[in-house]
Amino acid sequence: MNRSSKAPTWLKVIIIILLVILIAGTTVASLYILLPNQKNASVSITSSQPKVANAQKLVEAYQASGDIKDRDSLYKVLATNPTNTYVQYKNNNQSYGIIIAATQHIQYQRLDTTKTNSANLASSTETFLDNLGISKTSEQNLGTFISKLFEGPTVICQTDDRQAVGQQPATYGLACIDKSAADLSYAHVDVLAKASKGALQTNKIKTLTETDITQAANNLTTLITSNNDNSSTTYYFLSTDQTNWSYIGERPTPSADVKDSFQIPPQLQDTINSSQYRDFLTTYIK
């Protein structure tokens, strides 16, 4: 009697244990399914965030990176007279390229007399940029000088690889600009082209370099163009508020090969002499 009365109790215990195991197994299976999805979601969020905020942060990260090979052992920072203080860039929607000053740049000079730069330095620099989503878009090889352009969503960079020449050691550098700076430069050229009333025709230009001089309220913008016919022209524009621009004139860009190019054309000289800003203009247009 006692055995038969206890049997249902053991049976209940076994059933409870089986239920607990079943519930635990279901819970573990559910977590196994859900966790990978949560992991993927985390990766997706991270990868969607911008990796580089601007040119300054990029160059700072490059200088601090421990992944740039041979830089610390074979090079020193070139602190004076760097040659890579600009970026040459062409927007695919424009007919001409621009050469724009790069305030964010770093250049290294080789410590030994090896003529060329370290291939490891160049390749690890390119890998550094590529890992940040900044890809190579063009390359210019002039033999002793190799320039490569890299473009990302918000930043444009250019590497400067120069072989040793005479007593000058080999140098390697990186210069970057914010993409917004290039957009502003193109927009400014459009404004100046309209102010020139047809004198500045951007469809006849290969590349353009802009320099700006400010003295008190006076602003002088100089555009030096390399034209499709291999000539070079310099254009001058004046503004007192950096919004409304007046076209002063143009001249062939002075060249050591053309002695007369250093003489200001009569029409440009007349415009300068008759301007109320004559003193300012004669200081910087020579």
Report what the structure shows:
The protein has 286 residues and is α+β, with helices and mostly antiparallel strands. It folds into two domains: 55-178, no CATH class; 196-284, no CATH class. 37% of the residues lie in helices and 30% in strands. The protein has seven helices and twelve strands. It has helices spanning 2-48, 55-64, 71-74, 119-131, 179-195, 266-274, 278-284; strands at 75-77, 86-89, 97-101, 104-110, 135-141, 145-151, 155-162, 171-178, 205-215, 218-227, 232-239, 246-252. The strands form two sheets. Strands 1-4-8-7-6-5 form a six-stranded antiparallel beta sheet. A six-stranded mixed beta sheet has the order 2-3-9-10-11-12, sandwiched between helices. The longest helix is centred in the first third of the chain and has 47 residues, at 2-48. The chain starts with a helix and ends with a helix.
Task: Give a short synopsis of this structure.
It is built from seven helices and twelve strands. With 286 residues, the chain is an alpha+beta fold.
Strand order of the largest sheet: 1-4-8-7-6-5
Broad structural category: alpha+beta
The gyration radius over C-alpha positions equals 32 Å
Task: Give the strand tally.
Answer: 12
What is the CA–CA distance across the termini? 124 Å
The number of helices is 7
Characterize the main sheet: 6 strands, antiparallel
Low-pLDDT residue spans: 1-7, 10-50
Shape: elongated
